[in-house]
Write a structure and sequence with these properties.
The protein is α/β, with parallel strands linked by helices. Helices cover 39% and strands 19% of the residues. It contains 10 helices and 12 strands. The strands form 2 sheets. Strands 2-1-3-5-6-4 form a 6-stranded mixed sheet, with helices on both faces. The chain is globular. Bound molecules: NADPH dihydro-nicotinamide-adenine-dinucleotide phosphate. The site of NADPH dihydro-nicotinamide-adenine-dinucleotide phosphate (NDP) has 29 residues, from helix 5, helix 6 and helix 9.
């Protein structure tokens, strides 16, 4: 399909490796049907070192926008011409928006997606004053920390299996948001209680158990960026006395809705789409 094919629907893709598992095509098909937008959305598998060639070919062929998933979010941040604030802090892009004159803007909608899901499932009035523990310091955590910091939480503590990564991230966050109380704490030194604990590790993907003391989730609201069968952290946290838990399926739908808005200028109703995906996952 090319841009000269004026009857063709606008063309979007998610680029990744692997990408067959991605739920993004289903989510965007629901959004398109709901808003009456005429578009197609597919999956594009790029070779591990082939992101620039794949994305250039896609846009040269008339592509209207792209999502980017593992392992290319960093490569996408290098490829675009400009970054939004969250993508600049994360050095990771999950949404590419074409601009005029062959330029491209890289955005990171993971953080706004998480915040939207937290507003729906946890605290509608936001996170101001809350003490937040973040588990993990990889790409997903980098993507959400900027938007979280802007909510003016009481404190943010980052803990990670590789402590040096957490320290570096906490220092960067403090540099970018000087009014924020933020620190990195080694897992074995974790203590105290938190209002919100966010698991942004990929331990669930590997069926690995997180080495976190149960006391830190007791009485906390716990959010797991993993979803479905991989959301083992939710099950563990409930056993440790978390007041409530939520997996990351809502974040996935909300980050997609934020991308849809960037491309189409329309805000989909995420609640029915989330319900459909949830039902589908439970049937599997
Ligand atoms: P990365 O590979 O960038 O980071 C992985 C993080 O998990 C690192 O902090 C790593 O620690 C930690 N980790 C990995 N294995 C273990 C383990 N066995 N025990 C403790 N810590 C571990 O991945 P991402 O940040 O991109 O993704 C993290 C998770 O978030 C994934 O499950 C992904 O599916 C999910 N995600 C969900 C989204 C959503 O919309 N719901 C959006 C984006 C991501 P170390 O530094 O020591 O290696």
């Amino acid at each position: 399909m090319t841009s000269s094919d004026s009857n063709a629907p606008d063309d979007y893709v998610v680029i990744g490796n692997p990408v067959a598992h991605s739920l993004s095509p289903q989510i965007h098909a629901h959004f398109a049907a709901q808003t009456g937008e005429r578009l197609s959305y597919g999956r594009l598998l790029a070779p591990p070192d082939g992101f620039p060639a794949a994305v250039e070919k896609f846009f040269a062929g008339g592509g209207s926008g792209a999502n980017v998933t593992l392992p290319f979010k960093g490569a996408a941040a290098q490829w675009v011409n400009e970054l939004d604030e969250a993508a600049a802090f994360a050095s990771a892009v999950n949404t590419i928006v074409p601009l005029a004159a062959g330029r491209f803007r890289g955005c990171n909608t993971d953080g706004v997606g998480l915040l939207a899901d937290l507003r729906r499932g946890f605290e509608p009035s936001g996170l101001a004053g809350m003490n937040i523990l973040v588990l993990g310091a990889g790409g997903a955590v980098r993507g959400v920390l900027g938007p979280l910091a802007q909510q003016q939480p009481g404190s943010v503590i980052i803990t990670n299996r590789t402590q040096t990564t957490a320290i570096r991230l906490a220092e960067e966050l403090a540099g970018r948001y000087p009014d924020l109380t933020v620190s990195a704490v080694a897992v074995e030194e974790l203590h105290g209680s938190f209002d919100l604990v966010i698991n942004g590790t990929s331990a669930g993907l590997q069926n690995a158990v997180l080495e976190v003391p149960g006391a830190v989730v007791n009485g906390a609201f716990c959010y797991d960026m993993s979803y479905g069968a991989q959301a083992a952290f939710c099950r563990w946290a409930r056993d440790q006395g978390a007041i409530a838990t939520l997996d990351g399926l809502g974040m996935l739908v909300e980050q997609a809705a934020a991308a849809f808005f960037l491309w189409r200028g329309k805000t989909p109703d995420t609640t029915p789409v989330l319900a459909k995906l949830r039902a589908e996952l439970e049937r599997r």
